[in-house]
UniProtKB/TrEMBL annotation:
Full protein name: VOC domain-containing protein
Residue ranges constituting the VOC domain according to the UniProt record: 1-140
Annotated organism of origin: Tetraparma gracilis
Amino acid sequence: MHHVGLHVRSLPTSCAFYSLFNFTEAVRFRTGASRACWLADPDRPTAPLLELIEAPPRPPLPKAPRKHPPPPLGLNHLCLDVSPAPLGPVLSALQASSLLLHNRTVAVARQPRQQIVGGAVYELCFLEDPDGGLVELLSRGATLEEGAATEMRW
């Protein structure tokens, strides 16, 4: 496992809380319109990371139910690192296995795309588990040259 993502109300408050468990900020970045960061345990460099995703402020609840409510706080997704394999063949093999074993394909919530986090280029996609939970597949690609990575500031 590479990381676990949590929706949080405040990155500074959550970073402070998780520092109680020896997590320190490894990198800040944006995912869509949200601010995010990866936290790592410096004493356990191979341990999974904790990704904090700052949830946007919630609007007041409407009188009628909303079609797409704002995301809840807490667990956002589980990430599985498939590196060094590229995502395309991994996703194709996964779909073929699912079809063969279960007579159905896996729902793709977000198609594969690239994202720069820190000084590395990642390829990622999101799948849905049977209960609608998000499972991210992640493959680390190229490492950017020193100075080539753009710093993501909040």
